[in-house]
Amino acid sequence: MKKDFLSVSDFSPQEIEQVIEQAMIFKEGDSPHLLSGRILALLFEKPSLRTRVSFEIAMQQLGGYAIYLSPQEVGLGKRESVPDVAKVLSRYVDCVTARTFSHETLISLAKHSQVPVINALSDLEHPCQALSDLLTIYEKKGRLAGLTMAFVGDGNNVANSLLLATSLTGMSFHIASPSGYQINQEILGQGRKFASSSRSVIKLFSSPEEAVNSADIVYTDVWASMGQDAEADKRRLAFHDYKVDERLLSFAKQDVLFMHPLPAHHGEEISPGLLDDPRSVVFDQAENRLHLQKALLAKILLQTESMGNR
Ligand code: CP
Ligand code: NVA
């Protein structure tokens, strides 16, 4: 049995803790060549800076190798069917990290692939981002359980993964979104079950000030995600009152962390200069993608191997 990672909920709270601990070990010390000779395919339908670079370097530092496949080269689902691409890549590489428009594409890739598939962002989730963010929060606050994250903005892929990541690890999750842009109901249902086990709470708000009140972390993301460019003007109007700025942060705890997955639109979802505010940890978030993904790749590839898959 190979181990895919398509959703944060593919991991138990114990597995999340284990990956964060391993990431901290990698971050502190040398990188043993645990993945010597292993090859990762990076199959991307959308642009990327952080995800592509951090996965490539992660493989290199662990002694492996990564091959980037751009949208134009592969023509996933156009030049060649998704199942055929999955079957072919399985004959060459040890793992596929894929960034797709539709989450269904990822599910199909995983179904037809003989090797593990990792979600590098889909329209439903961005689980590598969420786990890396837990690492950043743990480093800064020394704990996860008992903290409150307030997400302000679109109930999008990043929000979905953060809702699952927080509720699995005992953090409370507040989200303020305008009408029509609320969090996915299925994810919410799943998160509520995790929250009842981890004794945390999930609360939905329309007011950003109420959501942010006494929060330990304030998180936001772009108003129009990749692939939603045609909706950008409409979204700018809908999200007008959901900008994160110095005034909104003053409702949170004094030692609040400000987080954003990047890329950011300065002056749109955040006030200009907010990324460089002392409360901002956005560049730590970007760095931690590398350390967390090294731990993730080691777990997924070595676990799959010890199960005798390859
Ligand atoms: N945060 C993130 O996933 O960035 P990229 O889109 O640049 O990979
Ligand atoms: N929600 C954003 C995240 C980018 C990292 C998008 O999907 O474009």
As a whole number of angstroms, the C-alpha radius of gyration is 19 Å
Task: Determine the fraction of residues in helical runs and give it as a percent range.
Answer: 40-55%
Return the string of H and E elements: HEHEHHEHEHEHEHEHEHHEH
Strand sequence of the main sheet, in spatial order?
Answer: 7-6-5-8-9
Largest sheet: 5 strands, parallel
Give the overall form. Answer: globular
In the predicted model, the low-confidence regions spanning at least 5 consecutive residues are: none
According to CATH, the fold-level topology of the largest domain is: Rossmann fold
Q: Which superfamily, in CATH terms, is the homologous superfamily of the largest domain?
A: Aspartate/ornithine carbamoyltransferase
Percentage of residues in strands: 5-15%
Overall mean pLDDT: 96
Tell me the count of domains.
2
Distance between the termini: 10 Å
Q: If helices are DSSP runs of H or I spanning 4 or more residues, what is the number of helices?
A: 12
CATH class assignment of the largest domain: Alpha Beta
Structural class: alpha/beta
Identify every distinct bound molecule in the structure, by name, code or SMILES: phosphoric acid mono(formamide)ester, norvaline
What report would you give on this structure?
By secondary structure, the chain is α/β, with parallel strands linked by helices. The chain has 2 domains: 8-125 and 287-306, Rossmann fold; 129-282, Aspartate/ornithine carbamoyltransferase (Rossmann fold, 3-Layer(aba) Sandwich). Helix content is 43%, strand content 13%. It has 12 helices and 9 strands. The chain has helices at residues 13-28, 50-61, 71-74, 82-90, 103-112, 127-141, 157-168, 185-198, 208-212, 232-238, 246-249, 282-306, and strands at residues 39-44, 65-69, 95-99, 117-119, 148-152, 172-176, 202-205, 217-220, 257-259. The strands form 2 sheets. A 5-stranded parallel β-sheet has the order 7-6-5-8-9. The mean pLDDT is 96. Norvaline binds next to helix 7.
